[in-house]
Amino acid sequence: MDNVKEYLGKIITLLTRIVDEQQENIDQAADEIVKRIGQDRLVYVIGTGAHSMMVAMELFKRAGGITQFAPIFPPGLGDFEGHPKTERLTGYAPLVLDYYRVRESDILIIANVNGINALTIDTALECRKRGTFTIGITSRDFANGVEKNIPSRHPSNKNLHDLVDIVIDAYVPSGDALLEIEGVDVPVGPGSTYPMVFIANALMIRVVEKQLSLGMKPEVRKSGNLKGGIERSRKLFDEKYYHRIKHY
After folding, report:
1. What are 125-178's pLDDT values in tens digits?
2. pTM tops 0.90, yes or no
3. How many CB atoms lie within 10 A of CB 32?
4. Hey, how many other C-beta atoms are within 10 angstroms of the C-beta on 129?
5. Residue range 233-241: average pLDDT?
6. CB atoms within 10 A of CB 196
7. Bridge-partner residues for 168, per DSSP?
8. Which domains does the chain have, with CATH numbers?
């Protein structure tokens, strides 16, 4: 279990660093989200990779989360779908944003730990064209550690953290895995899911706190597994957002 304990320690170190060093960026991002919610806008979120898409899943219809998060799930993105590998498909992002109706003055959270693939970069560039405000959840260290001109990179070799309006850094090292285990020739133990999802939920919590400070009523979901949870969702959320949020 020594390797498991080391793995736990590395994850805790990542999360602690986020709390210590990313508070200002999380707060600024939360301010922008609260502003859009006050305008009755949705908060769009896309995870532009086969595993980064878990961030969008985490914020969608989650017990203890707020209802205004609108996930973007492009076909072919998840590994469970096989092909096509749309995270590496250039020119796809404008079509995706059109379909979900992401427009000027909207806000989009772009989650991708390495921040280098085609869908990630095209999404950020297209948002700039549209005047859509962007929040990037990514790792500068990971992106900067990836060589130029390799197949996983966008042809421009740009990084997400250079293109968004606000960056929240997950501090994940290049290659994602965290442990060196004797007898294995590559690192073991992916590290990205925990900090990426932690940032998403930390951001959501700060949104709730800021809404309360402004006299706004946060629309927080209750688990459908608890008494009254389903009824609460139907009364407060389902009728209001069913026709506005795709996948609802």
Report:
1. 999 999 999 999 999 999 999 999 999 999 999 999 999 999 999 999 999 999
2. yes
3. 17
4. 10
5. 83
6. 26
7. 137
8. 19-241 (3.40.50.10490)
- Please say whether the dihedral angle defined by the alpha carbons of residues 174, 175, 178 and 181, taken in this order, is positive or negative: negative
The pLDDT confidence band at residue 83, using thresholds 50, 70 and 90, is: low
Nearest to 139 by CA among 176, 160, 169, 104: 169
Centre a 10 Å sphere on the Cβ of residue 41 and count the other Cβ atoms it contains: 16
Instruction: Summarize pLDDT for 2-38 with one digit per residue, the tens.
Output: 999 999 999 999 999 999 999 999 999 999 999 999 9
**Mean of per-residue pLDDT scores for the chain:** 95
